[in-house]
Write a structure and sequence with these properties.
Length: 171
């Protein structure tokens, strides 16, 4: 059997002004999803974000639809609502503001959209596709967790050795 070649990931890239890049970087630093990315990964993500504009009343994502992107709010406000039971009126959950992100649940869990997001004002959003999110953001979080776990176990092992040595000296 031949070797299976790993397909190299090439993220999409959209040109941005220096001001837009800085704005995205600032917003990412406020978002729990993006604020732990390494600088090189953050740069790739910033370039991969696609600008999308919405007018008041426009639906950005609809509950139950397939999710293929995560959104980072640059400007404007958006209403988040959810229908709990078929036939009921939507329940207002929150208002998304600049610096917040939404849509990650569908990407993380490969599940339908959990809520509907509607532009409340004129909005500028940055959209990151599923592939880039999974290959960079999700993988980065997994690597960071593994690194932290390794550091924890190394520290634990050191402490256990110290305790063992202390016990051996006593007896």
């Amino acid at each position: 059997m031949g070797d299976i070649k790993k397909i190299e990931f090439k993220p999409r890239s959209f040109p941005k002004t220096a001001e837009q890049e800085q704005s995205i970087k600032n917003k990412c630093s406020e978002s729990f999803i993006f604020n732990s990315l390494e600088d090189s990964d953050l740069k790739t993500v910033i370039l991969a974000f696609e600008q999308k504009n919405y007018k008041p009343g426009e639906v950005v994502i609809k509950q139950g639809d397939e999710g293929n992107e995560i959104f980072l709010v640059d400007k404007g406000e958006l209403d988040c609502q959810r229908v709990e039971k078929q036939g009921e009126e939507p329940k207002h959950l929150k208002v998304y503001k600049p610096g917040e992100s939404f849509g990650e649940l569908a990407l993380l869990y490969n599940a339908p959209r959990a809520a509907t997001i509607i532009a409340k004002t004129d909005c500028t959003l940055w959209s990151l596709d599923r592939q880039c999110f999974n290959r960079i953001v999700k993988d980065s979080a997994i690597k960071k967790r593994e690194k932290n776990e390794e550091a924890f176990y190394n520290l634990l092992e050191e402490r256990l050795e110290l305790c063992y040595e202390a016990l051996m000296c006593r007896y």
